[in-house]
Amino acid sequence: MEDATAFSPTSEPADSGISEVDTMKDARRLYPWPSGLQEIVSRLWRALSSSYYTESLEMVILEFFKHILFQYVRVNVFESPLLHFLAMLGIDEDTHRLREGNDFSFILAGMVYCCRVLGVKIILPTTFRRGETAEDDERFLELRLKHLADGSFSPIAEMISLLAYSRHYAFNHANAGTIS
Asked: Nearest-5° angle of CA 160, CA 164, CA 167?
């Protein structure tokens, strides 16, 4: 089993006498780990790498997504691990430049859809859906408005704003096939 501290932003490669290039050094330095995320990632890593882990894998995964989806993002959007990851997806590895709106909007749309589905799964767990009451419906609507809708200070709202921008860009982009 690998060491769970592999995700530590301060861990350095082990001194084995051989000089290794630490390819994750800049990533660890640039990414600000929000409080509690490092512990959840360590638990997730242990759950994924061990077949006899005591905690339910599904519960650890849902807790991880709850931590990254249901947070507030106001000034520095890159404090959100989800938006930080999305920024990395926006870099085209062939050209080493940012992707254009046409090339990035479908990735962004898929991420928004998946995050909303995960958000609903977290707010309304499958085991409790049969015995729902009107109070559960109100709680769902309140949390949906607070974390999964546009206009809130959440990663999903930021993703929806980026999606609207990329859609606007895609509509105003010249389509060579249509012109010819």
From this structure: 135
pLDDT tens-digit readout, 64-104? 998 888 888 877 777 788 888 888 888 888 898 988 877 88
**Domain boundary, last residue among 69, 85, 108:** 69
52 plus 105 within the same structural domain: no
My answer on whether 38 and 101 are in the same domain is no
User: Quick count: other Cβ atoms within 10 Å of Cβ 113?
Assistant: 10
Question: Rounded to two decimals, what is the model's pTM?
Answer: 0.67
Give the chain's domain count.
Answer: 2
pLDDT tens-digit map of 102-129: 788 888 899 989 988 888 888 887 666 6
Distance between CA atoms of 61 and 48, rounded to whole angstroms? 10
**Domain region containing 33:** 1-69
Are residue 27 and residue 64 in the same domain, yes or no?
A: yes
- Rank 1-15, 119-133, 137-151 by mean pLDDT and report only the highest: 137-151
Q: Given 28, 46, 69, which residue is the final one in a domain?
A: 69
